Amino acid sequence: MAINWIESEIIEHVRWTDVLASLKFKGDVLPYTAGQFTKVGLKIDGELISRPYSYVSSPNEDFLEIIYVNVPDGVLTPKLHDLKVGDKLFTMDKASGFFVMDEVPDGKNLWMLATGTGLGVFISLLKTSAPWERFDNIILVHGVRNHNELAYQEQISEFKKNNPSKFNYIQTVTRETKDDCLNLRIPAAIESKKLEELAGINITNDSQFMICGNPDMINDTVELLGKKGLERNRRSKPGNITLEKYW
Ligand SMILES: Cc1cc2nc3c(=O)[nH]c(=O)nc-3n(C[C@H](O)[C@H](O)[C@H](O)COP(=O)(O)OP(=O)(O)OC[C@H]3O[C@@H](n4cnc5c(N)ncnc54)[C@H](O)[C@@H]3O)c2cc1C
To answer: pLDDT tens, 122-170?
Structure first.
């Protein structure tokens, strides 16, 4: 199916680190659901080159936002990194994807596990009411290499302020030591039971997991959760693990 490209204008380019950044832009796209992704593209040597990006913005906001990492030798991201406020990019008019709350079965606890840019999609989901209305406890876990990659701290503090009794945010930094956070990969934090300890919640089948980020983290986590009897959630057979892989 042909993609309908919308010309969009950049209104903000936030540099979280040398290589991690988020872009806010305005474009007349069709309504989307939190958790979905769009495609963002630029004309490079006369050809429109695009890649998928999850929205960080939520459907009721009047701007669009993505977070990306400038991949060394990547085709698109080094060009995205050069963009300034007022520059244009192309956005797919119709968002896509099934990493949305309607696809997640009911449960008591919702674990949102992210590494790196995988955090963005959870920011979008948590800006909507559905996760808060449907789950008693929400545990957002963000794994990064260095602490300066822990983006969206203000937004996350607001989630905590608005939902003090049901929100738990756990950071884990793997390449340096930082107080008040884990220094383990997410799978190791599950295996050692550190995550359960910190959250004060046992992982049983009343937990739903949404996982997004590095494919090795996702594969290792799915394997570990499998040992606890939790399986992938499929439309044909509901389960406890819903995931989105970026590469
Ligand atoms: C459904 C979906 C949603 C996505 N959402 C996001 C998003 O919200 N943010 C985002 O940064 N990327 C996201 N991606 C990945 C994105 O589409 C691109 O692959 C990425 O930006 C690299 O593009 P590039 O042209 O610069 O690199 P390419 O030349 O296409 O090189 C691809 C390589 O870049 C690396 N890579 C890709 N994505 C990442 C990443 N996020 N972090 C670290 N290394 C990476 C991998 O080694 C991959 O093999 C998503 C992918 C999919 C399929």
So the answer is: 999 999 999 999 999 999 999 999 999 999 999 999 999 999 999 999 9
Using alpha carbons only, what angle is made at residue 128 by residues 127 and 133, rounded to the nearest 5 degrees? 120
Q: What percent of the chain has pLDDT over 70?
A: 100
**Which residue has its alpha carbon closest to ligand 1 atom 45?**
71
CATH number for the region 101-245 comes to 3.40.50.80
Ligand 1: which atom is nearest the Cα of residue 99? Answer: 1
- Does the domain formed by 5-92 have CATH 2.70.70.10? no
Q: Are strands 207-213 and 241-245 parallel, antiparallel or unpaired?
A: parallel
Which atom of ligand 1 sits closest to the CA of residue 71?
A: 26
Handedness of CA 46, 18, 11, 115 (dihedral sign): positive
